[in-house]
Structure formats: C-alpha cells, structure tokens
Amino acid sequence: MLEKTEMKFDPEEVIEEFEALTKEAGKVQEETLKKILEENGSTVYLQQWGLNGRTDPEIFKACVPLVTHKDLEPYIQRIADGDLSPVLTGKPITTISLSSGTTQGRPKFVPFNDELMESTMQIYKTSFAFRNREFPIENGKALQFIYSSKQFKTKGGLAAGTATTNVYRNAHFKKTMTAMQTPCCSPDEVIFGPDFHQSLYCHLLCGLIFRDKVQVVSSTFAHSIVHAFRTFEQVWEELVADIREGVISSRVTVPSMRSAIMKLVKPDPEQADTIYNKCSGLSNWYGLIPVLFPNARYIYGIMTGSMEPYLKKLRHYAGELPLLSADYGSSEGWIGANVNPKLPPELVTYAVLPNIGYFEFIPLRENLDGLEPTPVGLAEVKLDEEYEIVVTNFAGLYRYRLGDVVKIKGFHNATPELQFICRSNLLLSINIDKNTEKDLQLAVEAAARLLVDEKLEVVDFTSHGNVATDPGHYVVFWELSGEGSDEILQECCNCLDKSFVDAGYVGSRKVNVIGALELRVVKKGTFHKILDHFVGLGGAVSQFKTPRCVGQNNSRLLQILCYDVVKSYFSTAYS
C-alpha cells in the first residue's frame, strides 16, 4: 500500500474502501488478527504463549496475556540494543518511537515500522477524504506548524525519535500531502531546523508569502497553533518588514534556513501594506487567521483531551473559520479517523479502522462478582458504554493496554465511533505532556534527597496542573517536617522541574509552552485538614488516600491548600 501514496489521490475511492471495510468490521478484524499472527507467530514473544500457529481470536485471547509497556519493555530494549532475532516482529524493526509518556521516569521506547507508516497514511487519507467532501480544497497549500526533533541512534544503531518526527522524515508523508493538494508552505529546512523559535518565525513568514494559497492552517496539537499566533502578535511588524524589503530577519541565524527562505521571499510592498492595514484594523486580534489567510477553509489539529483548554483562544483567532479535530492515535499506533468533520471538537468521534490493528475493549463497569471485566471485541461493544482500549498491531504490540478510556457514541456501519474520555492513569497534563502518579513520586523523591542534610523530610505532597495562568504550569505542594532555607527549597524546585523527563514535558518547557514549575510549601497540618475534609464528606479514614493531583473542579481542596501556603518558589531550571 505504501506505493499507492505516489499515485493520484482519489478521495471518493478512499471513502468507498472505508465503507467496504467498516460494513464487514467484525470479519475484517478476524482477518487482521490472522494476518498479524501469521506474520509474527514465530517471534520470541509469541512463541512462549503456545499459540502453535493458531490465529483464532478466542485462542489468542486465552493464550496471550494483557500487557502494559512495562511488560514489553525488556523485549523492546533488546531490539533497541541491536538484537536482530525476531523478538517482537517477523521483519526487523529499524526505527524506534519515543512516546510522550514515560516509564519509571524514562521516555518510553515503542517500535515503529513500515506497517505503522502505512496505517498513518491510511488514517490521513481517510479523514481527508471525508473533510474534503464538506470543505473541499484544491491546488492549495497548508500552513503547518510542524517541527521535527532530532533523531538519535540507539545502542543497537536504530534511528529513534518522536513518532511525529518518524512520520515527517518518511518520504511517503510529503508524497501524501502533495497528493492531497495540501503541500506544506515551509521548506524542509524549516521543519527540520535545529531551533524551534527560528522555525516558528519562518513558518509564519512562509505562510504570509503564500497567504492567498493557504487553504488549511494546522499542527499536530491545538496548542501549537495558539502558540504560533501568540508569537505572531509579538513579531508581526518584523514579518511585514521582511515581506516589504524581500529579506529575512536577523533573528533567523541558521544558514540552511536563511538560504531556503531567501529563495522564496522577494520585495512586495503592496502585500506588506495589505497585511499591515489588516492587522492594524483588528480588535484584540479577533479573527486573525482568516484575515491573514483569506482562502483558508478550516483549522486542523488534535483538539480533544488535554487540548480542550486551548479551544477558547483558538476560536478567538479563528473567528468564523471552523475548527476540525484531527484523528485518534498515539505513539503506539493509530485507532480511528474523524469521519464526521462538521462536529465541533468537544463532540468529535473517531471511527475505528478495522484493518490497521486488532482491537479489544475492557468494560469499565465492574463485574458484580468483583472480577476483572473480560475484554470484548470491536463488534461486541455497546452504545454509551465506557471502555479501556487494548491494541494488537503490526509493530510488535500484542494485547497492549493503551491506557485510554473511550465512550461508544455511535457506529459507522459496523465499526464503533469512539469519543476520547481520558487517560486511565494520567495525573498531570497541560498539553502534550503525560506524567503519571509514579512520575510525580519519582520527581518528589529526587528533590527530597536535597533535604537530607537539612534533616528535613517531605511529610506529604500533592500537585495541580494550573491552566489558569498563561502558559499553564505544574504546581507541587509540599508539607515539610520543619523549616527549610530559601536556597535549598529553590534547589528542590529546580530539581522537581528537571525530574519530569517525559518528552512532551521537556519539549514544552524548553519553548515555554508550559511555564516554570512552582513549588508551594504549606503549613504543618495542611494535609490533616484534607483528611478531615474527606471524613466530613462521609469517607472512612481507613480508605483515605492523599490525592496526588487536585483537579481544577476540586475547588474546596485547592482552597485548603492555597490558603495554607507559606512559601512559594518558581523553577529557574529552563531559564
């Protein structure tokens, strides 16, 4: 199928193929599992479960256990370290993706291969075909705020990078974008540039150079689009000057970027005047995007889950332009496409593609007998029920608990349409960062070691993702056994910030999309007040667990904590 990306793209043909697949979703699922097991049955991992060549779903579920990343980590590590035997897949894995989640405080490795790239392009093309029915675009360009991080080599010589980097660096990505008549405005030197701030400036400049051709404004995540236009507010006059003079600002110093942009930019005083007058006429930048790009049809990116807080600002910039939410997947692979593009992001659903993996769903309703609920197949899910997704794919994941909770909102033919509800084990998340209770615990433990010489200890702790500030930031509350010096507590604050090693967090902190972590020290007895509050609500002391993260909606708990703050420190770790 990868070769097909070079052909002319026919949206109606893609929709026909999707309709055929989803009408027979249950049957396609069985065929997909059979194909996965036939290709990978002789692997080290699958051999131990006694399948003996059998590919029946019931046998598969009876023999192969449900797993998390922790269970597969030793196998993935073997591959990353250069083991060439068929560890997880029959064909060798040549690339590793860095998940934006972590395991034991380290970024997670997940396998990436041609099959995952193939399913990525299938998802892209499917959702585009449905979008193009409602919002047709033709011979245009996309202003894509995309940035590729550096790939590095693992111990075994495999290329490793974020999942998006692995996609952008693949030749089929550019071919598919061109076939879908939405090539990126910016040259590769900008996308793959080493400096995020310079790349962003160049993306904005390229967008303005091609402003009449831009039909789509997009990024992987909604917050990147918001961040881009917040930046535009600061640098717009400089951008206008570049267009007027046919030059590029001295703020762009990377030689490859400068030379690539200089090939595109030429003096255009008329265009510069138009942009200047239009921007000057805006009220608080409302409707900025359609003013800059008069032929834009929509704004596109992941807008669900932890991206929802950015929708208000994005709508402000978008004016009347529709916001279309992108597809549903993770570093581990894709799940479904948005085939109802007219739905607002808050209501968006994703139709599962039954041929890109084998999917199971663990009901969240507890069994009356108290036993772990039995996973059901794609054809057995029920409307309005919530489930945790289990994935088996072509890249070496077998009955892998993704950790996502979804709700069945409807069906497209025989395949379910899912609404993303939340991460089942996620604690702190401002945008693309993903930190669990374990990650918080490891960070607190690391910072608390600095207190040992002061003969102090952390009595209790909790956290809060503060999105009321701009940018949002992590707040960690500590109750200490005694009084610590400002110098030591500032060190602790910096250590906490540096101890969150999730790739999404680190990347967001470096570019200030997430603000400096804040350490707030509370009075002695504060956590006892939280216990009293819990008991006052009818809870039993024996069942009390200190909440490790206090959500925005838990206003009483936040009130208790904030009222008792005696000292506050902001991290300078990324300054």
Automatic annotation (TrEMBL):
Q: Which family does it belong to?
A: Belongs to the IAA-amido conjugating enzyme family.
The record ties this protein, via Pfam families, to: GH3, GH3_C, GH3_M
User: GO CC terms for this protein?
Assistant: cytoplasm
Q: Where is the GH3 middle domain?
A: 350-423
The entry's keywords: Ligase
Q: Which GO terms describe its molecular function?
A: acid-amino acid ligase activity
Q: Does the keyword Manganese apply?
A: no
Q: Residues in domain GH3 C-terminal?
A: 438-552
**Protein name, UniProt field:** Jasmonic acid-amido synthetase JAR1-like
